[in-house]
């Protein structure tokens, strides 16, 4: 062997070329252990010892694991091969005629590798292109047999595996996470009666009432066709042109201009099925139903200035947050609730339940909790799972059925249709992430990328050659549509028209605005101001304000003031001249602040500032106390790496103010230690971080000498004093009172935001 190697041309082996034994590169077959900075530790994913530090699947709770095992690849200890399984001797050099000679066409190894690479991308989703996924499970609280025979709701404690994908709508696949946008909240239930997809959003209403308008809406909101701007933003002329001409959008606009559109985390936003669905029981009786997901961690959002900054420093902010929560064992959890009502009740409502721009106020029909969903496992491979997952509203199971919502009808068609081009053919249901856990038997055959190998000669029904199999399941087991009676007037016949109550475009827009706290109302007005100020054509701004006057004079006035619009334009003519008398004037659960969550600080991130000469004890104590409560405290210095503490110990900063600016954190702790404080004061990043924390109303803990950093950052001490007393989350530790200050800080962190500090425009 020695002599053969010597006789060969140059750099025959990777070891020679890259020097495996130089102590930097590992020898073949030996992986580098990835460092884990996450509290709570992490384990390797099943048998797959690749460099994913994934959470292990839990027996019984991650039933998709087994089915996906079939296709998981673990290359540990294996040699490279071609796609045909032929071992590859040299992965560095193409085949040439002599070392300086021409490359040879016969090089099947090179051609296979490059050809596959050439086709690595698939079209991105036409909307919701940017998304992040996770595995988990749904657990039923109580049998729901009275209302539905759907498999996930059969028994208390029954577990159904799920895969969830969260997304933004407007931006492309690589766009920022913190855009002002609706978030998709799509859940695939792998039930034992087939797959059920609940493809919802984090907002319970929608922009339009009829699928006919969806392509127009999406064209209007997407980057403008002539110059392909703006990316991941709705603040542009074509969007506001369209929605200002579509008064039915007004209710949805209120939601999208609220802080709902800039969530802090996927784990802190609600999800909604949006449309009215039906639940059907064993007797075939059906009721109407609206689905609600409510996060256990509470509903929390960013503020706009923060969202804008985060999008530059960490465009993957939500994706990273979801990944880290799961890796560190702080599993995102949501309660599923249903609003159930009968057809007779629905007829009495002041709005039409087939209109997706309307919600059913909780005061009218309470939300009944039916189970919980826990997301406890990151995907092994983004493309195979999160990108290839195909959600389709048409995928329902016995016990769940549709209403006649015309928007839903369009969706039932659209999702299957879009997957056929996105995933390259009609067999996308066979992709591992899409395949149901139950067996599939039918006479559909062939097509691109068919994986099933159907045996025998029977591919039709009825048949006698195959013993009549696969046979019709019949009404007892199979899916039967609710034989709902259509209450169309006989003389109407086929029409292109809308039911009368669809014409009320403003009552619920007003309800939403009136149900917000003053801080939230202010954010809504500011968001309209921001978005419309980016609109270049004055007539569009005016039309939008004219429309808002029909929902809220107060809001319209605030927006007009923000745009320097004086006098106000006349209100837009209403489609329904007589205002509707709504059942409720105010619905407090529509406020984000109404759901503070479980009061824990799990999954929060805190910056603990350090610099040479820092008083380490208090900082490390805060870090330990945060870790005990499931939060991550990161040591952030002017530079990363070890540095001497005041007591001679060494502290190791794993982030710097440059690579993890302060606004990426939920809270900040300023340290004691004269030398450290002097060093931090020398670094402009410190003052910026403090300003941002202050402006974004997030908790701050100020220890000892770092008091002066506040003054340095332009926060007057007089103001700081009144703020401390006002309980606004700025905690200045008095000497000897560090422990109670830390406790107050953790308490402030649990409250999340301290809006008492907010000023428009910001003073600091
Ligand atoms: Fe979608 N929508 N949509 N949508 N939608 C898509 O399907 C569509 C609507 C929603 O993570 C597409 O696979 C029409 C409402 C989510 O993979 C497409 C209409 C709601 C996702 C499509 C609507 C949604 C999509 C693009 C009006 C909330 C991402 C790629 C009739 C209830 C799912 C794809 C994922 C994705 C069509 C309106 C939610 C083109 C025609 C209302 C969460 O099929």
TrEMBL record:
Query: What GO biological process terms does the UniProt entry carry, in alphabetical order?
Result: hydrogen peroxide catabolic process; response to oxidative stress
Known catalytic reactions: 2 H2O2 = O2 + 2 H2O
- Cellular component terms, GO, for this chain's entry? cytosol
Lineage, top-rank taxon, reads Bacteria
- Top-level enzyme category: oxidoreductase
Amino acids binding heme: 125, 165, 214, 411, 415, 422
InterPro entries the record matches = Catalase, Catalase_AS, Catalase_clade2, Catalase_clade2_helical, Catalase_core, Catalase_immune_responsive, Catalase_large_C, Catalase_sf
**What Enzyme Commission number(s) appear in the record?**
1.11.1.6
* Function summary: Decomposes hydrogen peroxide into water and oxygen; serves to protect cells from the toxic effects of hydrogen peroxide.
**Protein name, entry field:** Catalase
**Organism (species):** Ramlibacter montanisoli
